[in-house]
Amino acid sequence: MTEVDIEKENAAIAKAYKELLRVSYQTLSKDDKKLIRHAFEVALDAHKDQRRKSGEAYIFHPIAVAKIVAQEIGLDATSIAAALLHDVVEDNPNYTIDDMERLFGETVARIVDGLTKISVLNKEMDVSLQAENFRKMLLTLNEDVRVIIIKIADRLHNMQTMDSMRADKQVKIASETLYIYAPLAHRIGLYNIKTELEDLGLKYTEPEVYNDILEKMQESKEEQDAYIKAFSKVIEKSLNKEGLNYEIKGRPKSIFSIRRKMVKQGVSFDEVYDKFAVRIIYKSDFENEKFLAWKIYSIVTDHFTPNPIRLRDWISSPKSTGYEALHITVVGPKSRWVEVQIRSERMNEIAEKGYAAHYKYKNANDKEDSLDLWINRLQEALENNEANAVDFVEQFKLNLYSKEIFVFSPKGDLKSLPKGATPLDFAFSIHTEVGMKTRGAKVNGKLVPLSHELQSGDRVEILTSENAKPNANWLDYATTARARSKIKSALNAHTKEIAEEGKEILRRKLKQLKITLNEKSVNELVNYFKLKTSLDLFYRVGIGTIDNAKLKAFASSRSNAFMSYIKSKIRKPDAPNKDIDKEEITSKYDMLVFGKEEERLNYTLANCCNPIPGDKVFGFVTINDGIKVHKKNCPNAVSLQSNYAYRIQSAKWIDSSQRAYTSHIKLSGIDNLGLVNDITKLISENLHVNMKSISFSSDDGIFNGDITVEVKNQAMLKNLIDKLKTINGIDKVVRV
Asked: Which PANTHER family match (predicted)?
């Protein structure tokens, strides 16, 4: 770099630093500014010889992370300083955690230490142990929740500046973000950041889909702005008449949420009706907030008809993230559904800043904060170290994203649970001991099974007994991470007791068969009985599933194995069959190529997404079943790419015109005479597609159809779906 370039870069760094101070959400005192300045100088020195992949000076990254922490999340000077220093100890051996404590005090040092531990976890290992890392990362919440918040800000900036990375790295980091960081941001109440992380995640995992929706949204932006203006005009006069101080904003739905709706409802972009929401933000003192929110609700519903089942009152019962608002869906101009969100300025700040704004408005005499309650519950889930890390993350993730219901205890206490929760979840949310001793449950005074799904407003009473204890069926009834982890712990303890007895029984029985119980024989037995672990083996012996007869069969196969091996070695290889059809081989084995070398390997197609030629796919190396091929947009893709990046194989289709693939199509529409005949005629005669099965049902003039067809590639399937849509009476055709 020339001197002029260095001078320009230094000026840009100074400008970025001044901007950081200017945009801070908190009011910074002289001491705060002094602390931030000192942290900036140390970070500048530590990173002076480093550059990012894009070529810019590394210091821009910690400044950007600190800016997200200061402006978008709204944390204090301590957090801003820690964000500036978050990579110092990891990247520069001249600085240690002790130096951080000496220079900046214990709190900053503790946060930097937590952030360093998380980064080292991610870099130390050759394989992606992301789920285990995630569990360890959550443990840092116990030390300081700001560790996680700064980590989310760090991930956001990395996602914003990922263009210079290799494509495979982009997919791994984006999958990890969708799998872990977006749900976590959602749970801490950082909704804006959650939305941006999801959109950026989609940008790198499914770029074509992302760009297509983005383009369509940009095209319709002018129309949306005009619509919001028309909507506002109708209610402004009434709001002004009441002397309210307010602001009306339009908020487009995120690309990720539009994509989710398109997939879930099987509709195109144009058919997603609520692509934006209208937000009314009003000024109010704390005492009148609720009164004014319902007054605005009344004014909006005077002008527009509300959908009664879409009213969400999070002012009377705030979400466990602290989120408060009234959400209503009304029929707006041009008969379109519009979601209207009514919030005070305080509620809006909490919705946008989450944790930081919550503490700004928190009174000293408030009850324990919902975030503190959540952290306490999380600690209990983390205590169960025996759980499989991936299962733990999956379960945790479900609880992060799940919608909430509110139920009452017999005494009238309100409890928040995830949607889909059962009486068993309620029992464990009260106390572990109550859960463990559950015998039955009453909901609204009636006895219900433990699998009964609770609804908002239910009054739940748990019946307990000293003799009751968890059984394996409980895992089918419980949905929350807390309940499941406690049940698994209890079941594991029982299993281990039986396994200990089983081990001794096995030792005696093998001795009679002249086999020593050691690591080699245990592994042979595990493989022979197609089990996963030695614990499974000992447990099955303990409960008698593996009996004397089965063990004798094992001993016999063991003694025959050596002879079989010798025979296979001396047997002459078969002469090549000249009649083998070359086309048949091509159709069966040469369908996909894997990796950069484009190798041809054996594989099976995953049942969860049924890929067909033309679909974008990847290979996943399983433990027992070789390579399984999944579609890039398979529901399991993000989880696999995030947790097991080291087992992902890039894959692409080659000429596949020789083989037919099974695909399922669902149809719905208005029933009319001869419709089934039109459909079957179109498929069999015009398109020459083979139908494997077809079923139709009609109910009060509406029909639903299910067709299984064989197609050779994606183009053929798309052509079939497009043609089916043209048949009179058919409303929707989707590939399952």
From this structure: GTP PYROPHOSPHOKINASE (PTHR21262:SF31), GUANOSINE-3',5'-BIS DIPHOSPHATE 3'-PYROPHOSPHOHYDROLASE (PTHR21262)
